[in-house]
Amino acid sequence: MCQHQTTCPSADAVDRDAARAVATHPEQGWSLLCNGVIVFEDTGEILPDGTMIEPHRGPARHALAA
Question: Are β-strands 45-46 and 52-53 bridged in parallel, bridged antiparallel, or unpaired?
């Protein structure tokens, strides 16, 4: 699927979020990556096979200080 040089990570790679965006819709909060992954502002994802990945951002900085 990816036409970039160097090829972007595949949808099943650990670093799949590093693929380049081919369509962005910031007003709706999502982007389509060249590997077929849809990423959302909240860090959730939908993989090309339909698998949904829950948001996975880290804890807020103030939570770490407590």
Answer: antiparallel
Question: pTM of this prediction?
Answer: 0.79
Q: How many CB atoms lie within 10 A of CB 64?
A: 8
Q: For 8-66, how does the pLDDT look when each residue is reduced to its tens digit (9 = 90+)? A: 899 999 989 899 999 999 999 999 999 999 999 998 999 999 999 999 776 666 655 55
Name, in order, each residue with C-beta under 8 angstroms of 48's C-beta and a sequence gap of 6 or more: 11, 35, 36, 37
* DSSP calls for the chain: ----SSPPPPTTSTTGGGSPEEEEETTTTEEEETTS-EEETTS-EE-TTS-EE-------HHHHH-
Token pair of 59 as six digits: 């804890």
Residue 5, pLDDT score? 76
